[in-house]
Design brief:
483 residues, Rossmann fold, UDP-N-acetylmuramoyl-L-alanine:D-glutamate ligase, 9-stranded mixed sheet, elongated, binds ligand NAX, binds potassium ion, YjeF_N_dom, NADP, Ribokinase-like, NAD(P)HX epimerase activity
């Protein structure tokens, strides 16, 4: 089952439904115990609980209530807990009473030398950036790498939008985020701001949430299982032949990278059309490369655009390709032409996958992506009735029905020239193998991100290194031990 992320409204609806069945305060009790056990785990990992120091920053809502109840659990374990109330008159009354009764102290300033700071400023009820008092508290903390406390956010890092993941300024940057029942959009869309996300079961049922409130992520195992590999009855044609159209004789790099990635991503056959045909074959002899569409032979899907130029010949070729009834992935220069000639995709009945980065997205949509990337990608896919893969550290893939899959690359090593060409070739291969544009895009994005991490191992990489790591990445996703 893919991992589900929900909007704040959908989370509230599920909580209310469960709350009706449970005694008052049950959900908060479970949530706060979850926060406390994550903090205890962290303290144990770094030397034990007794005598350790935890500071709790408490806002005006139930998020602060969770934090105070968690503080009560910690205080009973011998942790020295202090709480800073940002809005003392609005602090959660039951939580504050429990905290005090357990031996916690309310302070006017957080002391130095804390081991953990719990962010209970706001959760899904938060709006906008941290307000000045909270900003001053978090701004004064020494970062963990310099010996300061680790920050554990309750539900989400305050100052980050629950639904869009917009990181307002200022906002909390958490090392660990503890959330309840189901992940929220923010945990994917602002993953770097959340740190490690820990999900605590509080007994709510979120399976009834509407697709419009849901954002999905594939697990590694799911990507591994869906990756096409040859079966006993397969031959080079039956697995899907991909056609790559990229690069030029003058700039062969995109052609070599995209076709190499297509070869690496699946077995079977890769065809190529372009003026860099000879260069492509000299790098990847298995590619069947020609100069014109008329000579190309049959394929099951096309990946078209990287470095192909935008002149009249390129436009004519793109028009021919998009006039076929085959699945087509359009990237880079191809997107520039599609933005200028939306009619190229307007009447397509066959699957179409557009793979813009933010700049190309703005050209297609007519406006910047903006802070709400999720809504932006969903709207473009709906308006154009195509699948749109918006690239970035968090890649989002929306299909025309509004379903969105996301992938957190986990690191930014793939932000290097030519990495997009590699993604095009990979996703094109998966389209040719019969995956839907959305699954092809999501699986390729996951394997691409994994390849970048494997290739980098802590040092910068170029796209050739990324390409070389595509096979090892697929192997790992498939759970194959190659040793
Ligand atoms: N509803 C439920 O059944 C459960 C809720 N839980 C907790 O409750 C939280 C939601 O609680 P609330 O709805 O009370 O909302 P929050 O506690 O997230 O925040 C709302 C309060 O913060 C103020 N506020 C909004 N933006 C602010 C900002 N930028 N700076 C400072 N203050 C700001 C609002 O005026 C309001 O008083 C969840 O995130 C979760 O932590 C959990 O206990 C699990 C169960
Ligand atoms: K919080």
């Amino acid at each position: 089952m893919p991992i589900r992320h929900l909007t704040a409204d959908a989370v509230r609806a599920a909580e209310h439904a469960a709350g009706d069945l449970l005694a008052n305060g049950t959900l908060m009790r479970r949530a706060s115990r979850g926060v406390a056990s994550v903090v205890i785990e962290e303290l144990r990992r770094t030397g034990g609980c007794y005598g350790r120091r935890v500071g709790i920053v408490v806002g005006a809502g139930d998020n602060g209530g969770d934090a105070l109840y968690a503080g009560a659990v910690l205080a009973r374990r011998g942790v020295a807990c202090v709480a800073l109330l940002l809005a003392p008159e609005k602090a959660h009354a039951g939580g504050l009473e429990g905290f005090r009764r357990a031996g916690g102290h309310v302070v006017g300033d957080l002391p130095d030398a804390l081991d953990v700071v719990i962010d209970g400023v706001v959760g899904i009820g938060g709006r906008g950036p941290l307000r000045p008092a909270a900003a001053a508290v978090f701004g004064a903390l020494t970062p963990p790498e310099d010996g300061g406390p680790i920050i554990v956010a309750v539900d989400l890092p305050s100052g980050v939008d629950a639904d869009t993941g917009e990181v307002h300024d200022p906002a909390v940057r958490a090392d660990i985020t503890v959330t309840f029942g189901v992940r929220r959009n923010v945990h994917l869309l602002a993953a770097p701001q959340c740190g490690r996300v820990r999900l605590v079961d509080i007994g709510i049922d979120t399976t009834g949430a509407a697709e419009a409130d849901t954002l999905w992520t594939l697990t590694d195992a799911e990507v591994g299982r869906m990756w096409p590999v040859p079966g006993p009855a397969d031959d080079k044609y039956s697995q899907g032949v991909v056609g790559v159209i990229a690069g030029s004789a003058r700039y062969p790099g995109a052609a070599i990278l995209a076709s190499g990635a297509a070869v690496a991503a699946t077995s079977g056959m890769t065809r190529f059309i372009g003026s860099a045909a000879e260069e492509v074959v000299s790098h990847h002899p298995e590619v069947v490369a020609v100069h014109t569409h008329a000579d190309a032979g049959r394929v099951q899907a096309w990946a078209v655009g990287p470095g192909m130029g935008t002149d009249d010949d390129a436009l004519a070729l793109l028009r021919d390709i998009l006039a076929t009834d085959l699945p087509v992935l359009v990237d880079a220069d191809g997107l520039t032409m599609v933005a200028a000639h939306p009619d190229l995709v307007a009447d397509r009945a066959a699957p179409t996958l557009l793979t813009p980065h933010a700049g190309e997205f703005a050209r297609l949509a007519g406006s910047e992506v903006g802070p709400d990337r999720l809504t932006a990608v969903r709207e473009l896919a709906h308006r154009w009735q195509v699948t749109v893969l918006l690239k970035g550290r968090i890649t989002l893939i929306a299909d025309p029905t509004g379903a969105v899959l996301g992938n957190d690359a986990g690191a930014s090593w793939a932000s290097t020239a030519g990495a997009g060409d590699v993604l095009s070739g990979m996703a094109g291969s998966l389209l040719a193998a019969g995956l839907s544009p959305q699954l092809a895009g999501a699986a390729a994005a996951r394997a691409h991100a994994h390849a970048a991490v494997l290739a980098a191992r802590g040092a910068p990489i170029g796209a050739s290194d990324l390409l070389a790591a595509v096979r090892p990445a697929i192997r790992e996703l498939r759970g194959v031990d190659a040793s």
